[in-house]
Amino acid sequence: MVQVASHVDRQEDSRSNPTVLPPPAEVRADDVLVGGSNSAFLLPVKLCLERGAGSRVWDTNGREYMDFLLASGPLILGHSHPRVCEAVTRQLSNGTAFHTLNRPALELASRLVDIPGCVETVRFASTGTEAVMHAVRLARAYTGRDKVLIFAGSYHGSHDLSIIGYRGAVRAKSGGVPDSALEDAVIARFNDIDSVEASFATHGSSLAAVLIEPQQRSLDPLPEFLTRLAQLCRSSGVLLIFDEVLTGFRLAFGGAQEYYGVEPDLVCYGKIVGGGFPLSAIGGRRQIMRLADPALQSAPNFVHISGTLSGNPVSAVAGLATLAELDKPGVYDHLHRLGERLRGGLAWQLNTHGIEGSVIGSGPIAAVRFSDSDQPGSGLALREAVNRELILRGVLAQLQTRFYISLVHTEAEIDFAVDAFGGALRAAIERTSSAEGLLAV
Predict the structure, then answer these.
(1) Which residues are catalytic?
(2) CA distance 177 to 163
(3) Would you call 17 helix, strand, or coil by DSSP?
(4) Among the residues of 115-216, which ranges form H helices?
(5) How far apart are the C-alpha atoms of 233 and 18, rounded to whole Å?
(6) Which strands form 403-404's sheet, in the order they lie side by side?
(7) Distance CA 156, CA 265 (A)
């Protein structure tokens, strides 16, 4: 049973005494980790997590948080799910890495191929970044072309092409991306088919692929956008790559392919497919994927895809256990109901507090976008303030990305998060109003 009252009391106590943050471990982290973090996305309150169970995590000071980060998405079953832990424990005594074919990896590949969609064969990697990078290389080798169309504001990991889409060409170049990568990137606007058609008119004969998040940064595609995109690709001999690192097994068991009813040529999986362990996968049409066959190493268009821990058995059994839970009847109906409840509650809080903004997402995903047409930039300041206030109220989330919902979150926990969001809005408005005069209640 969810004990939200005591949870609120504990968080209110910590909020009234901010001097307890950060814990001693954070001081050492600043000395040994760049920025005191393993990620480019920083929380507005420094904390060091020590334990997770179900929908909750605890930091090194013993504070409890309702977790809507879920390790940036992999933990759709929640922390320390018993079926995943049992599978991993069994595998540990049988071996943790082989760097060759192993039974768990073979079983997981077979599971992925059995799902209706474009996947006919699979190659494993360790991260989403690797999966997308390999998929792009396959597309270039298959088509004999170099350019790739991506969408402004998209995120595909940490490789050069992704940085161009996410940060823009100028900032990407200043961050170490070479001119050659910039020259091979074609930028269009998500949900703007006219911008895509214009790009095809100019670059179609030199385009190897279109790389897209079918749900870009929590924003759903407009009706027929993906369908029209697939048609353009087919008519121009351009491969369509779905980056489903985030949407795979989240929107539906068949991912965005099933949810939106459009099949790409290649698909990239990550996060959920490894059940909380490092694993990603590239899958697609056999004639494309075969270019990575080691038997073709002497071929001029052979694509080298390899990694020391790619398809390791521990990650594979965690992925198999996770997919087994997700494939049970009613799972996605439940996840979608929770998502609708959260999005509706967050939108209600925005309206109640008179805040300009929107709530986007579908399935077990919700994201909040703040905007104030009279005060450019105020949405960012308010977002950061609300992020901080949410954490101080015991809700771990990042509004600049999304709320992730797990199968173990309850309606009571969703409602608690909505109430915390309302309280965070009130506190953040007061803080930003007094400090910067950005908004008034």
Answers:
(1) 155, 243, 271
(2) 8
(3) coil
(4) 128-143, 160-167, 169-174, 179-183, 193-203
(5) 54
(6) 357-360, 365-370, 403-404
(7) 17
**What is d(CA 312, CA 179) in angstroms, rounded to the nearest whole number?**
35
Coil vs helix vs strand at 417: helix
Nearest to 284 by CA among 269, 274, 302: 269
The tokens describing 403, both together, are 């709320």
The model's pLDDT over 86-104, given as tens digits with 9 standing for 90+, comes to 999 999 999 999 999 999 9
Measured in degrees and rounded to the nearest 5, phi and psi for residue 345 equal -70, -40
Q: Tell me how far apart the alpha carbons of residues 256 and 270 are, in angstroms, rounded to a whole number.
A: 13
pLDDT digits (tens, 9 = 90+) for 32-88: 888 777 777 678 888 899 999 999 999 999 999 999 999 999 999 999 999 999 999
- Angle (CA) 223 224 229, round 5°: 135
E strands, 155-291, in order: 185-188, 207-212, 239-244, 266-269, 280-284
Domains of the chain: 4-68+330-436 (3.90.1150.10), 82-326 (3.40.640.10)
pTM exceeding 0.85: yes
| Tokens coding 118 | 């474009």
DSSP 177: -
